[in-house]
Predict the 3D structure of the following.
Amino acid sequence: MSALTNTSPVKYDDTEYGIPAVCYCGERPKLQPSFTRTNPGSLYYTCRNREDGDYHIFKWWDEAMMEELKSVKEDILKLTCLNQMREALQDQKEEIANILNMHKENQMELGRLKALIANKSDGLTMELKLTNVFVATLFIIFGLVTSVYVSKTMTV
Ligand SMILES: [Zn+2]
């Protein structure tokens, strides 16, 4: 038997989860109560074109509602997870801002320390220059005294 001669209806696509939005024929599903003995009053989704003999949508309302609730529950879990991730990102953002502030403060402190070291080294340089002048003066005085002393001893 080929696919063309097979007249058995195609099974309803179970991938449509929750409340069905559209039938195979393109019609919007309608909700109506069952009048069978086995499911009296039970609601189900069906199609207004179902009398044409083709396969149209059929889905129990409670089954669709359970799937819909499950889907909503999963969405809520995803949103909760996303919110937790968002909060974690916000915390990390604040931590990064704190680290950047600390870095700026450290840079300012480093600048202050560099300036302080530069001032101290200038002072040290001045002290060294003064010490050198003092030592040179001492050598000159010593030299003069020595030469005066030597000249006196030579003349005696
Ligand atoms: Zn239909």
